[in-house]
Write a structure and sequence with these properties.
It is a single chain. The protein is mainly beta. The protein contains one helix and eleven strands; from the N terminus they run E-E-E-E-E-E-E-E-E-E-H-E. The chain has a seven-stranded antiparallel β-sheet. A four-stranded antiparallel β-sheet has the order 2-1-11-8, with no helix packed on it. The longest helix is centred in the C-terminal third of the chain and has 4 residues. The relative contact order is 0.30.
Length: 123
């Protein structure tokens, strides 16, 4: 069974088969969420969810408004990996799964705050 792994700082952390990335847009200051699942052919996006729009955050054409957020499924093919840029100037990415949410820095303490990390599907 494939699961999502987080790689960075010379380490690898096994997460879950389904994870949600959560971050706050650096300009608009609104929360964005993307849910990803691990599959044999890579990472597949399940859903994107954003509370507002603007500055490159426009909801997809098929978005619907649910519980205070725009929700849609971006038309993306499976990805071999997903790069998460980290500047140190904004709040870190949070990764959520069935047991809760945690910052990337807590999962990969040896990765510098400015070091990009990657999500990949792993066995």
């Amino acid at each position: 069974m494939s699961i999502v792994c987080l790689l960075g700082g010379g380490a690898s952390v096994r997460l879950a088969a389904l994870v949600t990335l959560v971050w706050t847009h650096s300009i608009e200051k609104v929360e964005w969420r993307e849910t990803w699942t691990a599959a044999p052919d890579g990472l597949r996006i399940v859903e994107a969810r954003v509370v507002g729009s603007g500055a490159g955050m426009e909801p997809g054409a098929d978005a619907r408004f649910e519980h205070g957020a725009w929700v849609w499924r971006p038309p993306l093919p499976p990805l071999a990996e997903l790069h998460l840029a980290r500047s140190g100037a904004t709040a870190d990415w949070r990764i959520c799964h069935a047991t809760g949410c945690v910052d990337v820095a807590a999962l990969l303490p040896d990765a510098a705050a400015t070091e990009p990390v990657r999500l990949v599907a792993c066995d």
